Amino acid sequence: MSLNICRLTFRYNSILTSRSKVPFQACLIYRQKHSIVQQKTQNVSTISVPISINTQNEKVQEIKNCSNELDSSFENTKEAFKSKTNFELIRGLLVFHLCSIDFLVRNNQRILQFMRKFLGAALFKRILKLSFYGHFVAGENTKELLPIVRKMRKFGVQSIMDYSVESDSLQNIEEKAASEIVCEKKILKITEKEFDKILKIFTKCIDTVANATKREGFAAIKLTALGRPHLFTKYSEMIVQIQTFFKAVTGSTDDDIFLNKISKEEFLKRLEEFQIKIDNQVFEDWFKMLDSDDDGFIDYYDWEALVNEKKELIQMFTSFNVKTGRIEPLIQQFTDIEEKEFANMKNRLIYLADYAKEKGVGIMVDAEQTYYQPAISQITIDLMKKYNQDSCQIMNTYQAYLKTTLSNIEIDLRLSQRENFYFGCKLVRGAYMEEESKRAMDRGYENPINPSYEATNEMYDKCLNRIIKEHHNEKNKNKISVMVASHNEESIRNAIQILKDEIIAPSDNVIYFAQLYGMCDQISFSLGQAGYSAFKYVPYGPVEEVLPYLSRRALENGSMLQNLEKERKLLWKELKRRILSGHLIYKVPSE
Ligand SMILES: Cc1cc2nc3c(=O)[nH]c(=O)nc-3n(C[C@H](O)[C@H](O)[C@H](O)COP(=O)(O)OP(=O)(O)OC[C@H]3O[C@@H](n4cnc5c(N)ncnc54)[C@H](O)[C@@H]3O)c2cc1C
User: Fold this and answer.
1) Cβ(446)–Cβ(500) under 8 Å?
2) Burial level of 326, CB count in 10 A (0-12/13-18/19+)?
3) Which of 215, 212, 537 is nearest to 361 (CA)?
4) Stretch 38-46: mean pLDDT
5) Max CA-CA distance within the chain?
6) Which ranges carry the EF-hand domain (predicted)?
7) What is the pLDDT of residues 235-247, one digit of tens each?
């Protein structure tokens, strides 16, 4: 079955190959039916729903207790740094001081390379472990991790293990393969072996979480660690092309794409407008196959099946390539080898998800760059559909610095309602801002990042409010969890206020808090000891392989000078307090 729609192709080719990445996911066209009562609070527009008196009293009491325990200025250093030795405080001060020196931050990679060469691998490793690595990374293997995880747990902070090998290092796997051989099949053999090794590491990570957290922790994973990054780029492009095609046919924008649908007649009219000739019977069959609920319309959710289950249906759309002189598929496809690699990557993921489920461990999928993200998000949502039937075992990550994040959350929330799965979300601001902006400028596409920090903050609040609103939606009630993953004190205070206003107890597991290991302990430990669900993202991995992560930490800390200043002040305050109170040797309390 082949349909030539050259006109459409030429008109939209530029859009289809554009890099304005918008994650494409399935969606709902149905509006929420039940009524809700809106009320305004100080910062946010919130929703209140009646809950039973008993439960409400208990919840109110729990919220009150936590709130009374918490110093929300996060300046009670005695409590916040209770779990830290004096050495750790001094190391923190030194590391943050180095992060404030612009020259060191800008040249950190070159300096690290030089140090490695000059000092030799063994000494370099030792020095890093005593300084930067020791501060930001919990260890090389599960044996080194366990004591740290247990210690944090004693002080009310749970762990999310994060094997912090970044795609920069993973790119080396591809390079290694490519430098040794030329044959694609051999590349496949080499890379697949490497990814299988990483799978084993992730499996051990799940074991560690299960051992250390008594079946209530999370393991974080970067999907690009399980397959060649190239696959994610290509799959993302396919997703964006398919999405752009739907927008073109229905005249949708990012903001209303989840509301639009198109009938057979309208679709045909559109094709005519594009002067595309088509055999009526072929089109009729095609439409019928795509219209999953047989309601005579194709909505975004039906259309999304072209990405996965019904991907052969997209092959009907072909175009004439003037360069090659051949008729080619309108939406690019994987080669046979890539198809195999992709299937292997998915199998690894399914193996991990099954394994984690068996061990009672949740999986938190990290968000990455926009050229990987549509693929990552799509794959994660597919996992949620399968594994989040009874609980929030899989959590996706949303980056508020992207212009399209609120609409992506809307799409996914509606999908979770339609397909009846638990929606789990880690909400971050986003870590790749400079890289994204530079890439957009170099390649001449619209910058996907919000125009200002204030716009990102506004997006963060809007996303959080939208998710919490869904918690009160009858259809999704008690099936929503969101992790406020941020070092921004305003965002944390805002979330605490939402818990109060909405009468959501910390033990309801609707809002969690998380900060990175080595950063903002004053927030995590204050929250944890006050009774909130506090987590630390705990990176681990071999020294050489986490260097890109450390480099990112230096850069990020360098650009957050205000935060850094406060943290340094607090560390110094606590050190002085201990010295003045005669605790030259400080012993971490056992409980
Ligand atoms: C537990 C945890 C998990 C994380 N997981 C991920 C992940 O999976 N993927 C990921 O990408 N990041 C992740 N991050 C990092 C996160 O995205 C942020 O980079 C980091 O936390 C800083 O943001 P903030 O909210 O903590 O602090 P803030 O200092 O309030 O915010 C800084 C952030 O604001 C945004 N910003 C700053 N200036 C501008 C500007 N001019 N225009 C637009 N936006 C601007 C940027 O995102 C910047 O990182 C994670 C962070 C935490 C704490």
Assistant:
1) no
2) exposed
3) 215
4) 34
5) 88
6) 278-313
7) 999 999 888 888 9
Q: What is the pLDDT of residues 271-316, one digit of tens each?
A: 788 766 777 888 888 889 889 888 999 998 888 888 877 777 777 7
Tokens 């930001």 locate to: 136
3-state secondary structure of 575: helix
C-alpha to C-alpha distance for 82 and 22, rounded to whole angstroms: 44
| 15 Cα: distance to centroid of ligand 1 (angstroms) | 29
Distance from Cα 437 to the centre of ligand 1, integer Å: 15
Residues 397 and 365 sit within 8 Å (Cβ to Cβ): yes
What's the CA-to-centroid distance between 57 and ligand 1, angstroms? Answer: 36
Burial class (CB in 10 A: 0-12, 13-18, 19+), 591: exposed
Pocket of ligand 1, beta carbon within 6 A? 366-367, 397, 399, 401, 428-433, 449-450, 452-453, 456, 485-488, 514-516, 537, 556, 560, 563
Give the number of C-alpha atoms closer than 13 A to the C-alpha of residue 371, restricted to the C-beta side. Answer: 19
- Determine the distance separating the centroid of ligand 1 and the alpha carbon of 486, expressed in angstroms: 7
pLDDT in tens, 73-130: 999 999 889 999 999 999 999 998 988 888 888 888 888 888 888 888 889 999 999 9
- Return the ligand 1 atom nearest residue 487 CA: 26
Quick check: 6 pLDDT over 80? no
With 0.70 as the threshold, say if the pTM is over it: yes
Q: What separation in Å is there between the alpha carbon of 429 and the centre of ligand 1?
A: 4
State in Å: Cα 488 to ligand 1 middle. Answer: 9
- Other Cβ atoms within 10 Å of 203 Cβ, number: 17
Nearest CA to ligand 1 atom 3: 485
The per-residue pLDDT for 562 is 64
DSSP 207-267: HHHHHHHTS--EEEE-GGGSS-HHHHHHHHHHHHHHHHHHHHHHT--TTTGGG-EEEHHHH
Structure tokens at 84: 């830290």
**Given the CA of residue 535, which atom of ligand 1 is nearest to it?**
1
- What's the pLDDT tens digit per position in 121-178? 889 999 999 998 999 999 988 788 888 988 999 999 999 998 876 545 555 555 555 5
* 37-40 and 45-48 strand pairing: antiparallel
